[in-house]
Amino acid sequence: MECNGNGLCFNFDAKSPMCPSMKISLNRIHSPKGRATLVREWLRLLADRGVDPLKLEKELPEKRASLRTLIARTRNSWHKRKGEYDFSHEVKEAMSGCLACKACTTQCPIKIDVPEFRSRFLQLYHTRYLRPVRDHLVATVETYAPLMARAPKTFNFFINQPVVRNLAKKTYRYGGFTSAFCPFIATATGGPSVCQYDA
After folding, report:
1. Rounded distance, CA 53 to CA 178, Å?
2. Which of 8, 112, 148, 177 has a CB 3.0–4.6 Å from the CB of 155, allowing a cystine?
3. How many Å is the maximal CA-CA distance in the chain?
4. Which value, to the nearest 10 degrees, does the dihedral of the CA atoms of residues 155, 159, 161, 163 take?
């Protein structure tokens, strides 16, 4: 955290690209300074408990997923749903609004990089708490998209059912399904035509 607290990120000028999420929310917690302050406090609390986040980061590539860690993350996520307090939830809330646009790195005089420390925080956060199902859905899209492209009409039929849309919104908090798998993918890879979309 190199933030020196100069406050230049509290810029509401419409012509300034500095942190659009802070301008929309009108909340200084969502500014680069606010996010850096929260992460600095989170790191201080970890240090008070004797936890070294750099050591944890270095150990992550060698760690294998195990039933024990899954149970621990499930238990922690359950406690989170029940309202058990953890300061890292406040940090995650502030980070969730970050667009990762990197305007902070270009506009801040000391080049604070919120997207970089945001990704590092989230990586450690999700070693303690389960990722939302929608994260897995988006992360594996390259695996299942070719399968859906082979049967676009079937996929579109199911995805356009109100039950499926409502389930996706409630379960995954994901409402972005569209009929994108008309013959587009097959044709974009060498076929004669491309889908037409209404504006």
Report:
1. 40
2. 148
3. 63
4. 130
